[in-house]
Amino acid sequence: MTVVHFYEKNSIVLSQLRQLIPSVGENIKVKGRKAKVLSVNKIDDYLVRIQLEIEQVAKKEPTKEETKKKKK
């Protein structure tokens, strides 16, 4: 069992106690969002630091009809 710290840029996203360590280029899900492993740094026997690139979700803009106020 190793402690895995997931980072996006310099901010920590998640810390987990895991048996399997993800490899570079692997697609994983972190907190319900898709992410790709950029690098894996093994600090010691029990600690691993993983750099992620989290996929950005495009927000849907409301249509013109939805933005209008309803008449009473």
Question: Which features would summarize this protein structure in a list?
Answer:
72 residues; mainly beta; five-stranded mixed β-sheet; 1 helix; 5 strands; 51% strand
What do you see in this structure?
The protein has 72 residues and is mostly beta strands. It has a domain of 45 residues. It is 6% helix and 51% strand. The chain is built from 1 helix and 5 strands. It has a 5-stranded mixed sheet with strand order 2-1-5-4-3, with no helix packed on it. The chain is elongated, with a radius of gyration of 19 Å. The model has no long low-confidence stretch (mean pLDDT 89).
What percent of the residues sit in helical stretches (DSSP H or I)? under 10%
Strand content: over 45%
Largest sheet: 5 strands, mixed
Radius of gyration: 19 Å
Shape annotation: elongated
Give a count of the beta strands, DSSP E runs of length 2 or more. 5
Weakly predicted, low-confidence segments: none
Q: What is the SS-derived class?
A: mainly beta
Tally of individual helices: 1
Give the oligomeric state of the chains in this entry, treating copies of one chain as homo and distinct chains as hetero: single chain
CA distance, first residue to last residue: 62 Å
Order of helices and strands: EEEEEH
State the strand order across the main sheet. Answer: 2-1-5-4-3
Q: What would the average pLDDT be, to the nearest integer?
A: 89
